[in-house]
Amino acid sequence: MAVVRIPPFHAETQADNDRATARVSAALGSLQDCELLRGRNVAGVALVVGVARQVRHGLGRRPLGYFVTGQSAAGVLRDTARDEWTLTLVSTATGSFSLWVF
């Protein structure tokens, strides 16, 4: 994603103000289109080694992916299924995990 830089300005006229508002709206629109930012934090997911568990993610759509943002055990997660409501996870360790699902 490209960095959008908006230089400082002094609005002398309503037209200047309208152009500035349009540029800010365009920059914010780029951020709203970023799928990664439209995710949700799912904390405290308790997993048992080798046991598949369905976890509700609350996105209302099929997730594109997830990041592990915290864990109480050294393990690797993998998902075996994804849908609009849940993510099915299997871990190589027993512990509690936190995820950013997007």
**Portion in strands:** 35-45%
**Which series of helices and strands comes N to C?**
HEEEEEE
Form type: elongated
Query: Oligomeric form of this entry?
Result: single chain
Q: What's the β-strand tally?
A: 6
Number of DSSP helical runs: 1
Instruction: Note the main sheet.
Output: 3 strands, antiparallel
Task: Give Rg in angstroms.
Answer: 20 Å
Helices and strands: which structural class? alpha+beta
Portion of residues within helices? 10-25%
Uncertain stretches of 5 or more adjacent residues: none
Termini Cα gap: 16 Å
- What's the mean pLDDT score? 89
- The strand line-up of the biggest sheet is 1-6-3
SSE layout:
Layout: H1 14-32, E1 40-47, E2 53-56, E3 66-71, E4 77-82, E5 86-91, E6 95-101
Antiparallel strand pairs: 1-6, 2-5, 3-6, 4-5
